C-alpha cells in the first residue's frame, strides 16, 4: 500500500488540507489532482489512491475543498476560491501541471479550473458531472432556485459571523462509509436505501456547515464551460440519478470527451471502484502528457 501523507498549509486566509501519495518512480509526469463532490471530502478518493497503479509514476493528490473535511470554514466560498486553492496546492507540491479528476460537483470545479488555469490542466477526468441543462425531476426544479439558495447561504454566513452556528461537526470517513454501502447493495430495497442515504441533505448536514452545503448547491448548478484542446475522459452512471444521461453524454462528446458508461447510480467511486480505477488508469497511461516544467 502506498504511503498516504496528510498535508496542511494556509493560503489566502484559509486552511488547505490534502492527502498526497508521492510517485514511487517519478518520471516527470503531471500529478493527478482529485476533487470531491457536494458535501463530501478527500476521503472519497482514498481507495482509489491506495489501489491505482498510477501511483508508481504520478503524484496523487486529493484535496479537501475549502469548507469541507479538514479545511472547514464558515467564511465565503465559491468555485473561484476553490480553483485558486487547487493552483496553490500544485505550486506547494512543485507541479506546474495536473490531470484533474472530479466527481459530481468536483467535476464542475475541474472544468472551471481548466478554464481559469488552462496552462496548469494537462487533462480532465469527469466522473458524473451534472450540467444544469440536463437536470431532471426535482433536481431541475431545485436548480431553478439557485439564486435564492445563494441568498440563503449569505444569510447563514452572516449569522455564523455573529456566532450563531452549531458546535464542532464530526468528521466523516467516506472510505469506511463506501465499504459499508457496498456490503448493503444486495437487493433493490437496499439500492433504494443507498440512494436515499447518499442523496440525503439531512445526513450531509451532520458533517458540513449549512452555509457550505447551500453554497455547494449553488456551485453545482452553475453551468461550467466545456474546454477545447484538453483531453477529457467522462465516466457517466447509467442510472443517472440526477441528470439525463443521454443529454450529458451528447454535450461531453460534442466537446471531444471520451465517454464511458458505468452501471451504477451516481457514485461510481463507491459502487464500482475497481471498474473506475481501471478505466482511469488505462486512459491516463495512454496520454502522451509530460510535466516537463516540474518545479521540484
From TrEMBL:
Key words of the record: Hydrolase
Start and end residues of each AB hydrolase-1 domain: 32-278
Keyword Hydrolase among UniProt keywords: yes
Keyword Cell wall biogenesis/degradation (UniProt): no
Pfam families named among the record's database cross-references: Abhydrolase_6
GO molecular function, one term: hydrolase activity
A GO CC term attached to the entry: membrane
This protein's name: Alpha/beta hydrolase
Naturally occurring in which organism (per UniProt): Pseudothauera lacus
Amino acid at each position: 500500500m502506498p504511503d498516504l501523507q496528510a498535508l496542511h498549509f494556509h493560503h489566502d486566509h484559509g486552511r488547505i488540507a490534502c492527502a498526497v501519495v508521492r510517485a514511487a518512480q517519478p518520471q516527470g509526469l503531471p500529478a493527478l489532482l482529485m476533487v470531491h463532490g457536494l458535501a463530501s471530502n478527500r476521503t472519497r478518493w482514498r481507495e482509489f489512491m491506495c489501489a491505482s497503479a498510477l501511483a508508481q509514476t504520478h503524484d496523487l493528490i486529493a484535496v479537501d475543498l475549502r469548507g469541507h473535511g479538514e479545511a472547514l470554514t464558515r467564511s465565503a466560498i465559491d468555485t473561484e476560491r476553490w480553483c485558486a486553492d487547487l493552483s496553490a496546492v500544485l505550486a506547494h507540491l512543485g507541479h506546474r501541471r495536473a490531470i484533474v479528476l472530479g466527481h459530481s460537483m468536483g467535476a464542475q470545479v475541474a472544468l472551471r479550473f481548466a478554464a481559469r488555469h488552462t496552462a496548469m490542466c494537462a487533462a480532465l477526468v469527469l466522473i458524473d458531472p451534472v450540467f444544469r441543462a440536463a437536470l431532471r425531476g426535482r433536481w431541475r426544479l431545485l436548480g431553478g432556485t439557485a439564486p435564492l439558495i445563494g441568498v440563503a447561504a449569505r444569510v447563514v454566513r452572516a449569522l455564523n459571523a455573529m456566532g450563531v452556528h452549531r458546535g464542532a461537526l464530526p468528521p466523516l470517513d467516506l472510505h469506511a462509509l463506501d465499504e459499508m454501502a457496498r456490503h448493503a447493495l444486495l437487493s433493490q430495497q437496499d439500492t433504494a436505501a443507498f440512494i436515499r442515504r447518499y442523496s440525503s441533505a439531512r445526513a450531509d448536514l451532520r458533517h458540513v456547515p449549512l452555509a457550505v452545503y447551500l453554497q455547494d448547491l449553488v456551485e453545482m448548478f452553475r453551468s461550467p464551460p466545456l474546454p477545447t484542446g484538453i483531453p477529457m475522459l467522462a465516466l457517466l452512471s447509467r442510472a443517472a440519478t440526477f441528470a439525463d444521461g443521454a443529454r450529458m453524454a451528447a454535450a461531453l462528446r460534442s466537446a471531444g470527451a471520451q465517454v464511458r458508461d458505468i452501471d451504477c447510480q451516481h457514485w461510481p467511486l463507491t459502487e464500482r471502484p475497481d471498474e473506475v480505477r481501471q478505466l482511469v488508469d488505462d486512459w491516463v497511461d495512454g496520454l502522451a502528457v509530460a510535466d516537463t516544467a516540474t518545479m521540484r
